[in-house]
């Protein structure tokens, strides 16, 4: 378990023996075990016991996310879909649950349901960006996300930005100013990022990044989901092929 000493492990086990069905102890053990890849599958009984208390707080959201992930690790996408379908109404503000549900439904071959979930997610994000522009009285921007992934991996920097710009040029999304929050120490390839410079506003100094997160954080756009002219909303792995053919 991460950053947990043998003495702390012993205390956790002692607390568990005293109250094996308790909310707090099962929650703590479940979250700790989910943070280590090799113990994730073993976290399931603790997560289930914690969730059985019906306390729907931020920790419960993390537990539900963990439970869905465990079902995927076990090759149980149907059960993962049930978890994410349960999580979304409890945590409507957690947009990740919408996209996780869409991903699992697509994996199950339930393509129309998957498209509906994806569409609900991206419509909300683009709507948030428009609302944010009105609130701050500034032009519409899209913070390209996940920024950390785009910055740290060469292929992601190439593919995600390329697809976003093509989709925008085709008029399939709002014509906003794309912005990438890119701390200098996280940029995998400055030359590639420079190629995008004429098309994407790159913000690298820490003060400006903090300011943009504070004022334009609601303008975050996932670069992984797009709606095609025929109305289907797809993950970029599939959407990329369709967009290239338009």
Can you give a write-up of this model?
The protein is an alpha/beta fold and 246 residues long. Helix 10 (190-196) links the parallel strand 2 and strand 3. It has a four-stranded parallel β-sheet. A two-stranded antiparallel sheet has the order 5-6. The longest helix is centred in the middle third of the chain and has 26 residues, at 111-136. The relative contact order is 0.09. It has twelve helices and six strands. The chain folds into two domains: 6-79; 123-244, no CATH class.
Short description:
By secondary structure, the protein is α/β, with parallel strands linked by helices. It has helices at residues 6-18, 23-34, 44-51, 58-73, 77-90, 95-107, 111-136, 147-152, 154-169, 190-196, 206-216, 236-244; strands at residues 141-145, 177-181, 201-203, 220-222, 225-227, 233-235. The chain has 2 domains: 6-79; 123-244, no CATH class.
């Amino acid at each position: 378990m991460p950053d947990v000493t043998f003495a702390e492990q012993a205390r956790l086990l002692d607390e568990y023996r005293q109250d094996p069905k308790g909310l707090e102890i099962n929650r703590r053990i479940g979250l700790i075990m989910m943070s280590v890849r090799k113990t994730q599958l073993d976290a399931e009984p603790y997560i289930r016991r914690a969730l059985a208390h019906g306390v729907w707080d931020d920790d419960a959201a993390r537990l539900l996310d963990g439970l869905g992930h465990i079902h995927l690790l076990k090759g149980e996408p149907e059960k993962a879909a049930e978890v994410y379908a349960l999580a979304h109404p409890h945590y409507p503000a957690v947009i990740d649950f919408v996209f996780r549900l869409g991903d699992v439904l697509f994996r199950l071959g339930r393509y129309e349901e998957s498209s509906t979930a994806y569409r609900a997610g991206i419509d909300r994000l683009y709507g948030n960006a428009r609302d944010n522009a009105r609130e701050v009285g500034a032009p519409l921007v899209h913070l390209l996300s996940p920024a950390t992934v785009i910055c740290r991996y060469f292929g992601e920097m190439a593919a995600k930005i390329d697809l976003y710009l093509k989709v925008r040029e085709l008029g399939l999304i709002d014509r906003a100013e794309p912005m990438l929050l890119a701390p200098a120490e996280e940029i995998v390839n400055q030359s590639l990022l420079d190629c995008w410079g004429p098309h994407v506003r790159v913000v690298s100094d820490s003060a400006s990044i903090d300011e943009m997160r504070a004022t334009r954080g609601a303008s975050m756009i996932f670069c992984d989901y797009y709606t095609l002219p025929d109305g289907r909303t797809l993950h970029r792995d599939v959407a990329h092929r369709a967009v290239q053919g338009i």
